[in-house]
């Protein structure tokens, strides 16, 4: 009786932690993993655990860990919305906070998702061989295309163990009730704007074509086609869930995110626009104080852009500025 009361208490705690997160994924600590929620071999629930490490996620965008985490959360939401929400609890364990778990299970590589049966007691003396291979999701054990979808993970973590779940819901603009009204509004607005611009003679002006040229230059200098062809993510999430646009230099070529290129392309545009204004606009001002003020502001801003561009370049390439003027 007391064991059942204790089990019910654990389920209530897990349910509270799960429902407190929008993605229905619980972040476990080592104590919770080995003692609070995994220290019994008579649990009425399984644990599906997603293992992650910030150093791997930030240094290897090609692994698409962030995308896999998103699919894992969709699977968690499908189970929590189904008829057996407490049969499997989805959780996440990070290397930075739970090194002992990684050591006990001898985790050497990612991505990795493991299912721990409720009949299995989780202790610091357990071995990786205690986990059936069918309960370890790795690129070598899952035949489905990587990154695995929520449906694939549900098939292996829930359906294969007779756990029913709700359908995976992927909120997109296409299945939104505002899709067709928005499309109709955009088309009507585009046609109306094109007609107004045509009547005003704007289409015969060089300004729109100059803007289009700048956009093409920005897209090209930002590596837009590289991002599209290689499928480079615009950003990733760090261990704290914050968006990260820049990857630290790890000595490897091509270790960058799409957002880095677009930000650098914006810097190039800003610097070029400032130099153009200093060359063609500022000298045409009639009042000397205006020329002096805008000229000084332009020089300062242009200098800041140059410093920013070179600083980011040195951080990414690991190189530095070498001077030869005063060397012996």
Describe the structure.
- The protein is of the alpha/beta class and 328 residues long.
- The chain has 11 helices and 7 strands.
- A 5-stranded mixed β-sheet has the order 1-3-2-4-5. Strands 6-7 form a two-stranded antiparallel sheet.
- Strand 6 and strand 7 form a beta hairpin.
- The radius of gyration is 28 Å and the shape is elongated.
- 23% of the residues are buried.
User: What characteristic shape results from the CA principal axes?
Assistant: elongated
Q: Determine the oligomeric state from the structure.
A: single chain
Termini separation comes to 85 Å
Q: Count of DSSP E strands?
A: 7
Number of helices: 11
Low-pLDDT parts are: 1-6
What's a quick, concise take on this entry?
By secondary structure, the protein is of the alpha/beta class. It has eleven helices and seven strands.
How are the secondary structure elements laid out?
Elements: H1 2-19, E1 26-27, H2 30-36, E2 46-52, H3 54-59, H4 65-80, E3 88-94, H5 99-104, E4 112-116, E5 136-137, H6 150-157, H7 179-200, H8 206-221, H9 224-230, E6 236-237, E7 243-244, H10 258-281, H11 288-317
Parallel strand pairs: 1-3, 2-3
Antiparallel strand pairs: 2-4, 4-5, 6-7
Question: What are its keywords?
Answer:
328 residues, alpha/beta, five-stranded mixed beta sheet, 11 helices, 7 strands, disordered N terminus
